[in-house]
Description:
By secondary structure, the protein is mainly α. Helices cover 82% and strands 0% of the residues.
Amino acid sequence: MNEIISSLTSAFTLAFVVTSMFALGLGTTIQEIVKPFRNIQILIKVLLANFVIVPLAAFVLTRILLLEQDLQVGILLMAAVAGAPFAIKAAQIARSNVTLAGSLVVFEVVVTVIYLPFVLPLLIPGVQVDTVAIAMPLIVQILLPLAAGLLMNFRYDEEAEMTRPIMSEIANISLAMMIVLNLANVGDVLSLLGTGAILAVVLVIVIGLVAGYLLGGSDVKNRRVLSVVTGQRNYAAAFVIAGGNFSDRPTVLLLLLAASLISMLIIMPVAGEFGKRAQAAESSIQDVTPAKVS
Length: 294
């Protein structure tokens, strides 16, 4: 039964990632995707939040909480990887700049592939990082669907407009199934109670959310985007590394599984709260504008 659930979770995760990125490309132009890359300041903040603050915080937490070695490895893995497509959905729920979120996910995926071979061996002595093994799934699942969507939007804009809601609906259904199937892992998560691992996972996610928000600048929508993009780690990449290096250490995989579930349980409500505040702000502006006109 666990193998069936695991296979279904992988299938729906793949469907969510591919359709999310394809739908993003269908509703976006190349210029819109590339625009944030011209803002050096925001890119530096993304690098600082995702590849310095979060990994450093994870490293410190594993020492302070005196976690056992395999749990330390899992925490450090989740903290070192960034560029999760789920962050795009979170940005949409937060009523923020979805295109910016997509651009940052692409940026983080590229940086992750370059960053891991150099930094991960420092965080986890003895680990070997196969750059190709990490890069290929990320390229195939994230970058290629985005490129296909952008190309279709550029060449066949009417067909892209018709296809986009279908892809978005498939992504939403896949996400719902992912959440339902992940609930089957609650028992495994509870088995980590008392080890300090769950506290460490929660703190890493919260530190990511806060760091992204504080570094987001004066634009509230950008702050919300950076918050969810930094708080959500790229568990797909983490599982690739864990499977290649720690397949004989099931605690590492269990930690990542627990972290992916806990992440959803934290990020979704935070994004929802951001969305409610954005909606309230928009409503207040609409209420005030007629008064000024009159």
